[in-house]
Structure formats: C-alpha cells, structure tokens
Amino acid sequence: MSPFPGEFSADEGLTRSEIRAKKRRRMLRRRRTTTIVVICVLVFGFGGFFGLRAAGGVFDDLFGPKGDYEGQGTEEVSIEIAPGSSARTVANQLVKEGVIMNSEPFLDEVERRDATIQAGTWTMRKKMSSEAAVEALIDPIAPPKITVAEGKQVEEIKSIMIESGMSADQVDKAIDDKTPKDYGLDIDSPSLEGFLYPATYDLKKSKTAEDIVQEMVERTENELDELGIDDEDANRVLTLASLVEKESPGDEDVRKKVARVFLNRISDDSRTGGLLQSDATVAYIHGARSDLTTTKKERQSDSPYNTYKKKGLPPGPINAPSAGAVKAALDPTEGDWQFFVATNPDTGETKFADTYDEHKKNVEIYRKWLKEHSEDSDEE
Questions:
Q1: What distance lies between CA 270 and its chain's CA centroid?
Q2: Three-state secondary structure readout of the chain
Q3: pLDDT over threshold 70, residue 7
Q4: pLDDT, tens digit, 9 for 90 and up, residues 226-274
Q5: Phi, psi (5° rounding) for residue 314?
Q6: Among 11, 32, 40, 312, which has the minimal tally of Cβ within 10 Å of its Cβ?
C-alpha cells in the first residue's frame, strides 16, 4: 500500500528480496558518495569540495532537500540533454532547472523502471514529481496544437489561436493589416485571407503568434510550388478556389463544374453580365449564415467583394481553401454551364444549367426539397 493516500510507492510491485537489494544499493551509493566527499575535503580542502559540487552535484545529494514534488508540474521548460549523459548528470541538471526537487527519488524511479534516458531536447515542466519527470523522458510531452480546418476565414483562425492561449494583441499584430508580402511571399493580395494554410500546427512554448502565421504562409507557398502555381497567378487561383470551397460540397466532379461555372460567368460569353453573383462573397462582407442566403439590401453593398455589383473575381480569397478546391480551380471541367444549385443539400446533389430558364426549373426542385424538409421538421 502507498505510504500516503493517493500517492504512488516506488516499491509497489517489487518482491521483498528486490526491495532489500534496492535498499542495499542505495546505502552503498550513499556510503560511496560520503567517502568521496571526505577524501575531497581532506585532499583539496573546502574550495575543492565546493568545486566538486558544481561538477557533480554531490553536495546537493548529501545536504539538499530530500522530498519530492507532486503531480505533473507547472509551466513548461525546455531541457537539453547532452549525448552520453549519465542518469545522475541528468538528475542534477533537472534539479538545477527546477524540474525536480532532488536527484535521489528521480534516480530511484529510473532504476525501478529500468529506464534509458536519450539525448536531445525535451519538453518538461517545473516542479514535476520524479515519477512524472521520468515518464516525460520515456513518453515525451507533446506540445499543444491548433488545427485550422479547410474553409476557415481569417477571423475564425484568429479565434482559434487566441483560444489556444495566445495573446489577442499578439495575434492581431501578427495578422491584421498584413499581406503575404509581410511574410516573404511575393504575391499581391489585399490581406492574409486564403494564405493561412489549413493544417495542424505545434504550439511550442518558444513560438510566437508571428511564428505560427509565418509557418502557415510557408505551407501555402509550398503548396503553390508543388502545384506549379506562379506568384502572379496565385491570388487569382486561390480566390477562385475559395469560392469553390464555400459554394460546393467536397465531391471532386462537382467542384470542377462549379469552378467552370464561375469562369464562364466572367468570360466573354457570360450570361450574367460578367457578374459572379456569388452569395458567398456577399456573406463574407456581412457575416455568413449557414445557408449562405443574403438579403436584397446586403446585395446592394459597394464593397469590392459584392459580386452582384462588381464584375469579375473579388480582390482576394474569402477563406483558406482546401487542396481539392485549389485543384478544381486549376483544372475545371469543360462545359457551358452558367448556373448551378444544390438540389439536395443532404446528399450534395447539384444540378447545372446552361440557361437561366433551365436553372429556374432546378431551383424549383430545390424549393420542393426545402418544403418537404420543413414539413418534416414541423412534424418532429
């Protein structure tokens, strides 16, 4: 049984003979240390003795605190363990860094677990129990992470970063009024929207908000390089991809057709007067609703992102598009479609039309779906 309620005994699980052997080793170790200290004092005097203390931690072993911290520790600290370091060297290093209270409980735990300590940089915590410290060296503490999902907008990404513990002021400073050029990417775009790559990022203690943003932009740059997208084309491609991301489901064929619709609408053969007429861009101005519907008043906005009034693509992306959406923008399906509507949002079924009359028929199918599902909701 543990000597204290809720605490773990280092002898738990050992036989009596193993416990006696362990105590003998500990006693011999202390006798050997005491003998070395006495000899050092006699031969070198107290000056040599205290020099030895700095080199090997012997003084701390004999006269330092004998207790142990409890729990997993407090704030994180980075520990560099040099190649060839002995367990005692590591123990003394951890004491000096404030990770553990003293070396003996740590060494006992290393011995009990027959643990091998590898060289390298380790993330540990201040005031860890010896058990927790050894566990951290065997099963490293993973740094916290943030995940930026595909289709997220800059404001959503900022919220994710702040919720992870970053200072709101630092996040604002790293993102607000910044463009890709501020992070070494020579692309003309009005903001970082669309250039913060959707992925999972480690939040090591040493990383600042600017470091994370830099990593996001570099991941975008790598993606552009892998897809062979030149800097002068990048903003246009990512802008189209962000519309595809927002306006279509994940089906590859549908996305390629949606990309073609948008390109046809701004082509010389446009049947919409060169207007994209994308509710997604209007919702970007005013704040998106789940169904991306917009009001007549919202569609009167003079914002350059209002594609009901401004011809062509908007000035920049409206979210962080997925790789699939980018590929759809690069390789749209050939066709003359100018209209599309998701007639069954549950399944993602989408119908495409060349003419507005044909499109109106498809819209009626969608309205029928809405009516049926509204009745189902009322019945429930």
A1: 41
A2: CCCCCCCCCCCCCCCHHHHHHHHHHHHHHHHHHHHHHHHHHHHHHHHHHHHHHHHHCHHHHHHCCCCCCCCCCCCEEEEEECCCCCHHHHHHHHHHCCCCCCHHHHHHHHHHHCCCCCCEEEEEECCCCHHHHHHHHHCCCCCCEEECCCCCCHHHHHHHHHHCCCCHHHHHHHHCCCCHHHHCCCCCCCCCCCCCCCCEEECCCCCCHHHHHHHHHHHHHHHHHHCCCCHHHHHHHHHHHHHHHHHCCCCHHHHHHHHHHHHHHCCCCCCCCCCCCCHHHHHHHHCCCCCCCCCCCHHHCCCCCCCCCCCCCCCCCCCCCCHHHHHHHHCCCCCCCCEEEEEECCCCEEEEECCHHHHHHHHHHHHHHHHHHHHHHHHC
A3: no
A4: 999 999 999 999 999 999 999 987 899 999 999 999 999 999 999 999 9
A5: -65, 170
A6: 32
For residue 297, give both structure tokens. Answer: 């008043």
Structure tokens at 257: 């057709």
Quote the tokens at residue 93.
């290093």
Structure tokens at 300: 């009167």
Q: List the structure tokens of 274.
A: 């060169």
